[in-house]
Design goal:
The protein contains four helices and 14 strands. The chain is α+β, with helices and mostly antiparallel strands.
Length: about 300
C-alpha cells in the first residue's frame, strides 16, 4: 500500500505541472482568438516627453476605423489573424497581419534602414512564451516580440518591447528619427481589446549609441460590434484569400534564413504593396509573386531565398 501511495504521489507531482501548462496554453489561445471579429477602432497617440527642452512636440494623432480580424490559421502552436479595413462602408483595404507562435525560436528584429536581423533563440528563453510577428499590408516584415501571456485578477494581457520601423502615420512625414522602440501591451477587455503602446522615437546610427528624440503614449481601442457590419471585408477575403495565401508562402521562403534581410523601399518608383494590386486583380501565379518579391530583396547572402 505504501508503494502504491508513493507511486500515486509521484505521478501527481509529474502530472499536475503538465496539466497546469496545458490549461495555461488554452487560456492563451482563447485570448488570442478573442481578438478576432468585427471592431470599431479608435486610434489615439500623443507625445509625452522629450529629453531636449527645445524639442517641438508634434500634433496628437487620432483616427477611427471599422476593421475585420479574420482567423486564417489555427494550429496547436500557431495562430494567424488577418486584419482588413472597411473604409466608408464601401471600400476594403487589406491591413496588417499578426502571427502568434508558441515557444517559437525563430524571430526577426528590426535594426534600421529597412533591415531586419533574423536569429534563433534558445529553447529555454522562449519556454511558455508566444511570439507575436507583425507584418505589413504586403506581408513584408514589420516587428516581432516574444513574451508570456498573463492571466491574473481577471486580466488577460501580453506585453513586450521591440524595435520597429516608423508607424504608417509617420513614416512619410517624419525624417527626424528612424527607429521606433515599441512597448506593446495587448489586453482583452469586456468590450473587445486594447493595444496600448509606450513608444520611444529613436535616432540610430552605425557605431553610435541610440539617441532618444521623444516618447509617446498610444491607445488603439477595439470595440466589438456585430460581425454583419464587416460583411464587405468577409466577402472580400473569400474572393482574395487564395492569392494572399500564395504571397505568404512566397515570403516564408524569404524568411527561412539567419542573418540580415534588407528590402528596397521602392522598385520602379513604387512600394511593394502597389505592385501587388495588379497581381491580386489578375489572380497571379506563385512564380509572378516570387519575381516581384525578389526585386525588393537586396540581401541574399545568407540563404538562397528562392527556397529550399
Amino acid at each position: 500500500m505504501k508503494n502504491l501511495a508513493l507511486f500515486g504521489l509521484l505521478s501527481a507531482m509529474f502530472t499536475l505541472p503538465i496539466l497546469a501548462q496545458e490549461n495555461k496554453k488554452l487560456q492563451d489561445i482563447k485570448s488570442i482568438k478573442d481578438m478576432c471579429g468585427c471592431y470599431e477602432i479608435k486610434f489615439k497617440y500623443t507625445e509625452t516627453f522629450a529629453p531636449e527642452i527645445d524639442y517641438e512636440k508634434h500634433h496628437d494623432y487620432a483616427a477611427a476605423a471599422l476593421e475585420w480580424a479574420q482567423l486564417i490559421e489555427d494550429k496547436d502552436d500557431k495562430l494567424s489573424i488577418q486584419h482588413i479595413l472597411v473604409v466608408n462602408d464601401t471600400m476594403v483595404v487589406k491591413h496588417w497581419r499578426q502571427d502568434w507562435e508558441y515557444e517559437n525560436q525563430n524571430v526577426f528584429y528590426y535594426d534600421k534602414d529597412n533591415t531586419w536581423k533574423f536569429k534563433k533563440l534558445p529553447p529555454e528563453e522562449v519556454k511558455g512564451q508566444w511570439t507575436q510577428k507583425v507584418f505589413q499590408v504586403d506581408d513584408s516584415p514589420r516587428y516581432s516580440g516574444s513574451a508570456t501571456w498573463v492571466h491574473v485578477d481577471g486580466k488577460h494581457y501580453w506585453e513586450s518591447k521591440t524595435n520597429a520601423p516608423l508607424p504608417r502615420r509617420e513614416y512619410s512625414k517624419r525624417k527626424d528619427y528612424n527607429v521606433m522602440l515599441r512597448g506593446n501591451r495587448q489586453e482583452i477587455t469586456e468590450y473587445g481589446w486594447v493595444h496600448e503602446q509606450d513608444n520611444d522615437k529613436v535616432i540610430r546610427e552605425d557605431g553610435k549609441e541610440d539617441v532618444l528624440l521623444a516618447q509617446e503614449k498610444g491607445y488603439n481601442i477595439y470595440t466589438k460590434v456585430a460581425d454583419e457590419k464587416c460583411k464587405l471585408a468577409q466577402d472580400w477575403w473569400k474572393s482574395n484569400h487564395e492569392f494572399w495565401g500564395k504571397v505568404r508562402k512566397s515570403w516564408d521562403k524569404v524568411y527561412d534564413r539567419e542573418g540580415e534581410l534588407t528590402l528596397s523601399k521602392a522598385v520602379d518608383g513604387q512600394p511593394l504593396f502597389m505592385h501587388f494590386y495588379p497581381l491580386e486583380k489578375g489572380k497571379a501565379k506563385t512564380q509572378d509573386i516570387n519575381e516581384i518579391i525578389q526585386k525588393f530583396v537586396t540581401d541574399k547572402s545568407v540563404i538562397d531565398v528562392q527556397g529550399k
